[in-house]
Amino acid sequence: MIETLSEHGAEIDSLVAASSSDERVWVRVTDATSEELDRVAEAFGIHPLAVEDLSEVARTKTEEYPDYTFVLLKIVELAPGETSFGEELLTEPLGICIGDDWLVTFSHTRTDACDRAWRAVEREGTLLSRGPDFVASRIVDGVTDEYLATLDALEARIEAVEDLVMVSTEIGTLERLNSLRRELLGFRKLAWPTREAVGALARGDPDHVRPETEKYFRDIYDRLVHLVELTETYRDLVGGARDIYLNTLSQSTNEVMKRLTVVATIVLPLTFVAGVYGMNFESMPELEWAGGYPAVMLGMAGITLVLVVYFRRQEYL
Length: 317
Fold this sequence. Notes:
By secondary structure, the protein is of the alpha+beta class. It has 2 domains: 2-250, Beta Polymerase, domain 2 (2-Layer Sandwich), CATH 3.30.460.20; 251-313, Magnesium transport protein CorA, transmembrane region (Methane Monooxygenase Hydroxylase, Chain G, domain 1), CATH 1.20.58.340. It has helices at 15-19, 34-44, 48-55, 112-123, 132-165, 171-202, 211-276, 285-288, 292-313, and strands at 2-6, 25-30, 61-64, 68-80, 87-99, 102-107. The protein has a 6-stranded mixed beta sheet with strand order 1-2-6-5-4-3, with helices on both faces. A hairpin with a 2-residue loop joins strand 5 (87-99) and strand 6 (102-107). Helix 5 (132-165) runs antiparallel to helix 6 (171-202), helix 5 packs parallel to helix 7 and helix 6 runs antiparallel to helix 7 (211-276). The radius of gyration is 35 Å and the shape is rod-shaped. The protein starts with a strand and ends with a helix. 28% of the residues are buried. The model has no long low-confidence stretch (mean pLDDT 82).
């Protein structure tokens, strides 16, 4: 689907009219076919490599072309995964082409960041007149907001699992910790190149970002720096929670082994006594003694009592 909008909030009927318009325009391409992508690329002179980056697994980046600047970002969300019952980190490419008087965005589905900016342009007739680079900053700011919301959701899960590792040694706890580690690693792989891509815009490296717009990208860059730092902190927290879980599990295993050792130590002398008097030798005087059986039972009970008292004093029981 192709939508066009002029700087006064009016829709434009065709791509030809949009590309030749004297006004600043925004062309929004959503879930487009290959033919629609080719039409948009031809109308605005967008390089085929930029279009290919939208369909391939490309890294977040900022590239400057003679007539426009291409910014590739990744939309991120936590959604139920296909291979697990929990939530997984899902991404989707968002391409932004910033020209002198036009803006073209590409996405596979409708994104909240573009929706909010689109409604703002429709509501505020002069927003696009401040330049395509300014509207692009609004879109990138919306993507950064989604990053922070996703990180907040991960933070809530981290806090929950931190409380759980102190009281539970179930294998499901370890699975949740490993899932969080994978998601934070994936999130870091998104946030780090996004910071670098926005950093190029904040420095004003591309000619299509005007000096008066750089401050907006600098503000976004500062937020992304903070976001990357938070991601590293959360990774350390999850690593620490995993270490606590493994230590708790090891301590629990040691307690079980200690109790089994105590039981084996108590049973060993009793087994020895029972084995001695269980031998079928004829010349064993104790077997003919009337008090032999009570004496053996009392002796075994005494041995057990002494060992139990000893182990309790040693705090093994």
